[in-house]
Amino acid sequence: MSVPNPPLDSLMIAAQSGDEAAYHVLLKALAVTLRGYFARRLGRDANAEDLVQDTLIAIHERRATYDPQRPFAAWFFAIARYKLIDHLRATRRSPTCAMDEIEDFIGVDEEPSASARLDLERLLDGLSPRSRDIVRTVKIEGQSVAEVSQRSGLSPIAIRVLLHRAVKAMSAKVGNSRS
User: RNA polymerase sigma-70 region domain spans which residues (predicted)?
Assistant: First the structure.
């Protein structure tokens, strides 16, 4: 029976404190996660492994900017997402999924997804109950604005405005972790 690895945020915090062993474990776990992340978005693109390496280098270069009080998965996936966008722009391809959807915070099926879900829940907890419900139903469950409008009694425009403000507030929290 193998011993489970600590959560990625704990590994990152230890790495920031100079723990080289934790840093190596973190980079290996992130490499596995990144391979899955890019494979799902690029298919059999030969550049996927290059993207993994570029993203790991970016994480290495920016590791001092990670704020332990902020969600690690959001910080990590933001870097991966920007690397993917840069690659898609350079190759003039369009992604196989919507890039600016909130689901990117969930991102992968591997072990970090539990951490990402917790990060997403923390972001959602900062919203009003009505905004949280709208983000969940539209962005996570995939219901249409019209369906949510009918159910809530709010106009579709009001739903879109609340959704926009909620996503903007969540993005601001994640953005603060990158500064």
Answer: 30-93
